[in-house]
Amino acid sequence: xxxxxxxxxxxxxxxxxxxxxxxxxxxxxxxxxxxxxxxxxxxxxxxxxxxxxxxxxxxxxxxxxxxxxxxxxxxxxxxxxxxxxxxxxxxxxxxxxxxxxxxxxxxxxxxxxxxxxxxxxxxxxxxxxxxxxxxxxxxxxxxxxxxxxxxxxxxxxxxxxxxxxxxxxxxxxxxxxxxxxxxxxxxxxxxxxxxxxxxxxxxxxxxxxxxxxxxxxxxxxxxxxxxxxxxxxxxxxxxxxxxxxxxxxxxxxxxxxxxxxxxxxxxxxxxxxxxxxxxxxxxxxxxxxxxxxxxxxxxxxxxxxxxxxxxxxxxxxxxxxxxxxxxxxxxxxxxxxxxxxxxxxxxxxxxxxxxxxxxxxxxxxxxxxxxxxxxxxxxxxxxxxxxxxxxxxxxxxxxxxxxxxxxxxxxxxxxxxxxxxxxxxxxxxxxxxxxxxxxxxxxxxxxxxxxxxxxxxxxxxxxxxxxxxxxxxxxxxxxxxxxxxxxxxxxxxxxxxxxxxxxxxxxxxxxxxxxxxxxxxxxxxxxxxxxxxxxxxxxxxxxxxxxxxxxxxxxxxxxxxxxxxxxxxxxxxxxxxxxxxxxxxxxxxxxxxxxxxxxxxxxxxxxxxxxxxxxxxxxxxxxxxxxxxx
Length: 630
Ligand SMILES: Cc1cc2nc3c(=O)[nH]c(=O)nc-3n(C[C@H](O)[C@H](O)[C@H](O)COP(=O)(O)OP(=O)(O)OC[C@H]3O[C@@H](n4cnc5c(N)ncnc54)[C@H](O)[C@@H]3O)c2cc1C
Ligand SMILES: *[C@@H]1O[C@H](CO)[C@@H](O)[C@H](O)[C@H]1NC(C)=O
Ligand SMILES: *[C@@H]1O[C@H](CO)[C@@H](O)[C@H](O)[C@H]1NC(C)=O
Ligand SMILES: *[C@@H]1O[C@H](CO)[C@@H](O)[C@H](O)[C@H]1NC(C)=O
Ligand SMILES: *[C@@H]1O[C@H](CO)[C@@H](O)[C@H](O)[C@H]1NC(C)=O
Ligand SMILES: *[C@@H]1O[C@H](CO)[C@@H](O)[C@H](O)[C@H]1NC(C)=O
Ligand SMILES: *[C@@H]1O[C@H](CO)[C@@H](O)[C@H](O)[C@H]1NC(C)=O
Ligand SMILES: *[C@@H]1O[C@H](CO)[C@@H](O)[C@H](O)[C@H]1NC(C)=O
Ligand SMILES: *[C@@H]1O[C@H](CO)[C@@H](O)[C@H](O)[C@H]1NC(C)=O
Ligand SMILES: *[C@@H]1O[C@H](CO)[C@@H](O)[C@H](O)[C@H]1NC(C)=O
Ligand SMILES: *[C@@H]1O[C@H](CO)[C@@H](O)[C@H](O)[C@H]1NC(C)=O
Ligand SMILES: *[C@@H]1O[C@H](CO)[C@@H](O)[C@H](O)[C@H]1NC(C)=O
Hints:
Blueprint: H1 4-15, E1 31-32, E2 41-47, H2 51-60, E3 68-71, H3 81-84, E4 95-99, E5 112-116, H4 122-125, H5 135-143, H6 151-161, E6 162-164, H7 169-174, E7 192-194, H8 204-213, E8 229-232, E9 237-238, E10 243-244, H9 247-256, E11 262-265, E12 268-275, E13 281-288, E14 294-305, H10 312-318, E15 321-322, H11 324-329, E16 336-337, E17 350-357, H12 367-370, H13 372-385, E18 399-403, H14 412-418, H15 434-448, E19 456-459, E20 465-470, E21 478-480, E22 491-493, H16 500-517, H17 520-523, E23 527-531, H18 539-549, E24 584-586, H19 601-629
One 2-acetamido-2-deoxy-beta-D-glucopyranose (NAG) binds next to loops.
InterPro entries: FAD/NAD-bd_sf (IPR036188), GMC_OxRdtase (IPR012132), GMC_OxRdtase_N (IPR000172), GMC_OxRtase_C (IPR007867)
Protein name: Glucose-methanol-choline oxidoreductase N-terminal domain-containing protein
Keywords: Signal
């Protein structure tokens, strides 16, 4: 029989928290403004209180005996109207902006990379588009050597994270047959609201009719693994009050004043992970954003990286986990030579086309920007009634066409074939693994030939701007530090359009969009392309316009710490453990081996839910082993 004291001694010996005396610390998950309130040691430290970090923090602290500290660079959002009303723009103070190095594929222009800088991360500031990727996206992850990470393995976690609510009757009547109300593919009891705006601009009918008239299928159920065709997407909002649902109000606020085993430090940046002789991650250094005061806190069991695809590789590199030549050049001692840290970077290049409409008499979404009195009226209606255009995400909307290559160009077979001779090693940045890249390209070649996987996304909320995103890129970039200053941004290199497939898809898609804009339903609105403009007509002219105007990011950075074989440039194994270390995992969008062809937030939630189960199971296994060996 185990005595309590023995169990406690065992726990302490395993956890390494060493029973050090506790400082005076807060008794529940309040925001700690200074580090004097923290304990010296927690079972788990989560680096980054963004989307993935808060999911894992919530799930791990379901056990009241498990202590968790989350360290987040940003602050708690003030529940400002800008983060709750879908139709308002988000305050800049919650956004971090990095600027890339000049991109040769964009005629040497730079491109911004926006991420969340707030508790809740990207989901507090994002466009609220909330659809899953295609079955093929996740099955590709599994094919890259990660059992359990295919569509079937992730589906329970997509469901676990959401509460889905079908659209109100008015919307269903307006778009008959366009939106499935089937609950089966969805979760109905999870923390994140997944629903639909209860208002829509009437011209969205022309959007669907236009695509249909040129042979694009209308898909009423894009969330069951078939994310193709023209569809009306779910958004991350609570159906009841039509307000934004994000990681902070879904996973943090409900437990903030309840669980005494969760602490959150805001306004602090983690600068370094410290390792013991056995390469176990044992503590983190972090610095106050306001006072520059530095602190160290210990982790008894694990340190969990959740600083996002742009910052997790930076922190690892600063800590000596990364490509040895890079680390040596900066005088950083290499703890583990892991060339993949920061490489395999993916985002989705985007071109914003412009149109005008001479026979468009309804209020348009652009009125929110251009007609202040109208916008004020709509806002008042929203506050009073939770209806109207302000229920539609700012510059967002939710009507899209997700096109497989064969639905963009009839030349798709020859286009895919022509890419098989591309010299991949000539395209990669310094430390990328050619074999890992080749394995991914082999999968992409098959996926680009499939009718069940989209390669381009065209969105329209009814206004002048029509974004075209190349959502399944062949190009790979990198995020590397160039200084040991942890407060400086890392060097962001998207390497946009480095692989010829991506620009080829962009050119073909511009022509496809013209087909849609010229269709009778869109012509009934008097649609005229104003940018690039119809005089930009040859492939060479279109290519030049894209290189002159496109940007590198669709705000879905991923894959910089890929879950893949180590010899392929992977950084974590299928249990999200960082190769060569102990007690260190990554749970953010950096682990996606390939970007999800679509928007990332729903996948980040699902991945983090699965990660939490893996972490819990890992600990139970350690406990079992120890008890058996006693
Ligand atoms: C402007 C914008 C629009 C988007 N639109 C959509 C959309 O419409 N639909 C969709 O599905 N997805 C969208 N996304 C993407 C989606 O929100 C992200 O993929 C997702 O939130 C990423 O989750 P994450 O956990 O990987 O990282 P994040 O949520 O970014 O979390 C990382 C956290 O780590 C913190 N951090 C960084 N460095 C440190 C450090 N050194 N120490 C401590 N903390 C640190 C950050 O402040 C951040 O809170 C958008 C993103 C942005 C930025
Ligand atoms: C942290 O600061 C905020 C804002 O000043 C305050 O509301 C909160 O009570 C403080 N928390 C603690 C634990 O001191
Ligand atoms: C913010 O929202 C509330 C309702 O939730 C409303 O009463 C208030 O007027 C709004 N503030 C501004 C500045 O619009
Ligand atoms: C981009 O910059 C590189 C290096 O400075 C230069 O060789 C190349 O000609 C430039 N390309 C364009 C299109 O200006
Ligand atoms: C793509 O084209 C094929 C063949 O014409 C058609 O069967 C399919 O429905 C189309 N898919 C989409 C998403 O439009
Ligand atoms: C913190 O350090 C930065 C430089 O790294 C400096 O500009 C700033 O003044 C410092 N702030 C405080 C409060 O010391
Ligand atoms: C702006 O909106 C008001 C309604 O608030 C409307 O009466 C007016 O015609 C609009 N102005 C323009 C230029 O569209
Ligand atoms: C308020 O909402 C109800 C339904 O919830 C709707 O019928 C009504 O038109 C709305 N009022 C306004 C001013 O939009
Ligand atoms: C491919 O590119 C690499 C690096 O640029 C080069 O060394 C190699 O010779 C090229 N291979 C072929 C077959 O052209
Ligand atoms: C690091 O790269 C950035 C560009 O991303 C540049 O502005 C900065 O000067 C570089 N810093 C050092 C120390 O080289
Ligand atoms: C302009 O729109 C109206 C109302 O939708 C429609 O009846 C008319 O046919 C359109 N005009 C043209 C030239 O398409
Ligand atoms: C197309 O027309 C626009 C505006 O008249 C002009 O700026 C642009 O240079 C033209 N482009 C081409 C390729 O002719």
